[in-house]
Fold this protein.
Amino acid sequence: MAFLELAPGEGLSYTARPPTAEGAPSVVLVNDLLGEAADWDAAVAPALAAAGLGVVTFDFRGQGASRAAPGRALTPGLMAADLRALLKAAFPSQRPILVGQGVGGMIAIQATLRGAPVAGLALLNALRAPGPKLDWITAATPLLLAHGGPRLLREAWSPLLSSEEGLTDLEDLGDGPFAPLPADDGRLALARGAAAEPVDWDPPFEQLDLPTLVITGLQDRMFLDREAVNRQFARLPRAEAEAWPEGGYWLAQEQPQQVTRSLIRFAASVARAAA
């Protein structure tokens, strides 16, 4: 594990696995707003590395082992800047593929639009329709975290986010403890940052002239607006789509094998196009 210092006492914890197959590209797995590198490291990252790809997992400031200064505003803009800094440090002479889950997909897009050297994008449930519903969810997230922590958030929203297959264990539902997050917790700072400086869900997709894979879990009943996804997808110059009927929102956690297969195939196609 390495550490990229971004400011005194602040920086990103990351793990970089080099490619082991000749000519194989590297992928950078970009966390969701309240995710962690551990979400990828559980299954997807090791499987990609076993297939010979280079793999980087990391935590944004406010997540996992990364560090942020007290009072630092952890906004989506800062997350995109931190991702660009990580890419510069980890890939001085290579263009990796960015794989982003949810908000992580939009952070990957923003980093690309701001000049990060990127070979391709894979967006997992990242396309969304801006509007009152999304604004409400963004504003409610820090309130729920402040009252009952991540467990309350997950138990309240899992029926909307998980696939039917993923909703199998009700034994611990409601047992708690629902512990409020401390005021200085990084996850709360990230949620508040996203509420104060909302993610740009309608960036200039037309400027993303690079291979792009859009994966959509059709059982996501919280964020998915299929008409909006179709409109945004049509604006991507070089995109391909996969719609998974059995997929919910947490694709990398609930369907890691399918995610891995799709990413290996996509990485191979990006490598062929660049050759």
